[in-house]
TrEMBL record, chains A, B:
NCBIfam families: PRK05463.1. This is Putative hydro-lyase GCM10007269_35960. Keywords: Lyase. It comes from Microbacterium murale. It comes from the Bacteria.
């Protein structure tokens, strides 16, 4: 649609990427408000087709915003960026196991020079619209990371890749749940409407207070847990499918782009 | 969304695929009304990632409805179908040149056993909505193929693939153009809103009466030429990029699925 970021927004985004490049590591919810954040998964070229196909077949959890081809490290969504350094915290995966977390992934790109990087949409994009509509975002208010859960929903496999859907959860006042559905539904390119509302157990979530990723939630009286497809889903696919090598962001530590959230509203 | 086709629709779709499988070859505009039709491009596995990436980077002309992996020939969008036979007319491409047109592509799949097939959304899907709104579809009325044109709009390249956007054109009464934009805009997964309205020359189209694909249009007094991104765009990429081998449908001779058009309305 050609929505343009303000110079203040761009300065904030560049400063944040610069901080992360220098080694700072904080969750990015609420950082550079109004600009789109993205999940990262990078795999060796041999796995790139299946990763892109997995995303195409599972567009709600895995909406592809950009593919950075082998040999490239700059995102077109953030000119001047370096995908190896500009995320606060990375995860290095070997044979489906989390091998380490690092604040600089340059060594990983040196080790595998054929890495293809996928930037996947993030639910933080529609949080802007929710906040603008007066719907509270609890984890932002508390300065915490959003809670994320593995579910019993199988994604559609693609070649060697399979795994379950990961969801993020936001407690929403019961009277605003319908608004939250409609507002997030206007951004189908970044997870869109919720995949589930109100019943954690039917997603296979035994204990809402113990998320698989991120921080514990605080669900208050009169609030309903609302679940959105989450861009951490590729990490569940890594665990289930065990590719020899992969790099991802650490959940909640996103790549900040220069693209306004409004760009993804239909 | 889980919209279900009626048994009459499904019977019509299966009968049409059966006719094409038996060798019948007619343009499919208006056939099995209300069910989604798709463009085809199939390439050797070595070109599959770039083809999928080209589609991801150019979603208006190349919205991917399904990828049929190597070794598979049945579309999940049409159970019981065979992608090698169930299109009325195929094009076989060698080194970017149109080598032949056939009504059965089984030999092509035998020659290249690693073909990966992509089904791409078709503007016929939103024609249903236009007709329902009382907007005339001239090429349907005349029993002709929709006119399609190569343009001067470059698609975003992906690896070895590049090429210009192809558009389809429908003459729309001036008073209904805004309606046509809004109705087609509700199907972003199948080309969505027009890419251009009213000025062929700015698209590099010198003579509207001589389309590059399909049949000549008939634009009447008071009608505006409206241009939509077209799923023949991958064929322009084949011509420009010269992969060693490819199979496509012949323009206008689409693959008919069992999926209601309404499934793609947001």
């Amino acid at each position: 649609m050609g929505v343009i970021a303000t110079s203040d927004q761009l300065a904030t985004a560049r400063a944040a990427r610069g901080d992360y490049r220098a080694g700072r590591a904080v969750p990015t919810s609420g950082v550079a408000a109004g600009l789109t954040q993205a999940n990262l998964i990078a795999v060796p070229a041999d796995w790139a087709f299946e990763t892109l196909l997995y995303a195409q077949r599972n567009p709600k959890p895995c909406p592809v915003l950009e593919v950075i081809e082998r040999g490239q490290v700059e995102s077109v969504l953030a000119p001047g960026s370096d995908i190896r350094t500009d995320i606060g915290r990375y995860r290095i995966w070997r044979d489906g196991e989390l091998a380490s977390e690092v604040t600089d992934a340059t060594d990983a790109w040196d080790e595998h020079r054929d890495l293809v990087a996928f930037l996947i949409g993030c639910s933080f994009t529609f949080e802007t619209g929710l906040v603008d509509a007066g719907i509270p975002i609890r984890h932002q208010e508390l300065g915490r990371n959003v809670p994320m859960y593995r579910t019993n929903i199988d994604c559609t496999p693609a070649g060697r890749l399979r795994g379950e859907m990961v969801v993020s959860m936001r407690p929403i006042p019961a009277g605003r749940v319908a608004d939250a559905v409609q507002i997030s539904g206007r951004t189908p390119a970044v997870h869109g409407a919720p995949v589930h509302i109100g019943d954690p157990s039917s997603l296979g979530i035994a204990d809402l207070s113990r998320p698989d990723f991120g921080d514990a939630p605080e669900v208050r009286e009169g609030e309903i847990p609302v679940f959105w497809a989450c861009g951490v889903t590729p990490q569940a696919a890594i665990m289930a499918s065990r590719p020899p090598f992969a790099v991802t962001h650490a959940p909640g530590y996103m790549f900040i782009t220069d693209v306004p959230d409004a760009e993804y509203i239909v």
